[in-house]
Structure formats: structure tokens, C-alpha cells
Amino acid sequence: MLHEKTVSVVIPAYNEEALIGKVLETMPEFVDVVYVVDDCSTDGTSEVAREYEGRLNGRLVIIRHERNRGVGAAIVTGYKRAVADRVAVTAVMAGDGQMDPSDLERVVTPVLEGRVAYCKGNRLFTPRAWQIIPRHRYLGNAFLSFLTKIASGYWHVADSQTGYAAISLEALEAIQLDNIYARYGYPNDMLVHLNVYDFRVADVPVHPVYGQGEKSKMRAWRIIPTLSWLMAKRFLWRLKEKYVIRDFHPLVLFYALGSLLFGVGAAFGLYLLIYRILCGPVEGTSAVFSGFLIIAGLQMLLFAMWFDMESNRHLK
Length: 316
Hints:
Blueprint: E1 7-13, H1 20-25, E2 33-38, H2 45-50, E3 60-64, H3 71-84, E4 89-92, H4 104-112, E5 118-122, H5 129-132, H6 135-152, E6 165-168, H7 169-174, H8 186-196, E7 201-205, H9 220-245, H10 251-278, H11 284-311
Parallel strand pairs: 1-2, 1-4, 2-3, 5-7
Antiparallel strand pairs: 4-6, 5-6
Helix pairs in contact: 6-8, 6-9, 8-9, 10-11
């Protein structure tokens, strides 16, 4: 226990027999229960985890999926067990040793103290993050973090791809866990759902850990397009749920009109460019009109983003 409240840790694991032992070995003493969710590993992940049952003095629970369902689904399985066990705060740590256990207290404390419902680690706060994190992952993370800011409404949150986070029992009971994205877009999608329910979220610095022998299962060329499409869909879902169904805010109109004006202006400008190349000169007024639509659309979109930032400022 910590601050007189129970704490659990969910460890999603898929083929992590080489590293799961180290994660369990370094688990802080204040953690009351550890849920290892084996996502149908083809190696000895579960067997290695069972070797630590005695060392963890009854704190270890091993759950195995009968089929591989994805890291998000594994985390949700752990969350559901934590809800059933009425654990006050549940954290997530990866099974590959990339999350420093010494940071766990920093991650769970804001939730334990009731200041926020969800607290996530941010590796980018570290001054040497650019040197420690592989460049392609750093740049991909920065791009997806920007998309997640827009989609989720948590403009103050960065490093959206880290799953090192803690959540309150109240938040787990409120959100629809079965609707959370089942694979690598899980942390991005979680933020969107938390925003719809108006839960406060905090970012805390954590140390990036690499070179532990882990092998990344992510491929940027496949993940970035998939998550970009996911964030586009979740952005529209959030606008509908939060600003149309639950309450109304004019930012929805600004987003809609801005997108329309920008899209029409860009399409018309492209048409004029092609016409100029293939057929010859175009009317100057036509080019001005295209530019006007694009600028007006961008202004509308920027106003919508500003409204969204102001509407969610209290969730910091």
C-alpha cells in the first residue's frame, strides 16, 4: 500500500520470457498485487513468471489469453481484474523492462492523492531523451503525440506512446473498457475516452530505458498510418460525444466549417494548378478566391483548436 491505498500493476506480456523476470524482480514493495497478462505467448513467458510467485509473497496473479488479442486488450484484462478486486490505483508497466521501477511511485502518487484520475509518464521531459531514444521512434512519437493532442483534447500531454501510466478505480469504472483500442494505439485511445468523461490527467517525467535486450514489435511504416486513422476517427467521436450529445459547444461548427472551407479551397487551388500546367493562364481572381477559402478555413480551424484548449484547461 501507498498513502494507505491499494496499488496494483498490470504487466502486458507477449513473448517476454527473457525480460519478464527482471520486471518482477524489481517490482517495488508498495505494490499490493501484480497482474501479468500473457497475451498467448509462444515462448515460456508464463512459466518464467510463475517462478516468481514465491518471491512476490502471493502478490502475483498470472492471466493468460487463449489467443493473441493485442497489448491494449491485455491491459484491459488486467484493468478488469483490478476493478473486480477493488484496487484503488492501477498502473501499467511493460513486460520488456523499458519502464524504470524507480519511477512508479512518481507515476501513481498524483492519482493516490486524488489530484488526477490518470497520470502518465513522459520520457521527453528528460534532457537527454534525444540521445537515449532511437531517432525514428522519437520522431514518430512526436508526430503521433501532436495528433493525440488534437484528438484527445489534452493539449498539455505529450509522449502519447508510453504506456507507463496509473489510473483510479473511479475512472476505470466510468469508461467503457471494451471500446478501448486493442493494440498499440491503446494509450492514445485511452486519453480520448478519459477526456469525454472529463477526467483530469497529469504528465510526470520518467526515465527512458533502452538497451535491455528488448526487441521492438512496432514498425513505424505500419503503425503511423494506422494510428493516424484511429486518431482521426476518435477525434470525430470525441466531438460528437462531448460537444454535441453531452453538451453543445460552437467549436464543433468552427471545426466543420473550417474543414469545409479549407478542403474546397485546397481542391480548387489544385484544380487551378493543373489547369495552369496543362491549359495555360488562369484568372487572377480565381487564384485569390482559392487563397481566401484556404486562409478562412485555417483561421476557423485554429479558432476551433483554441476553443478546445480553453474548454479542457480545467483538466490539467
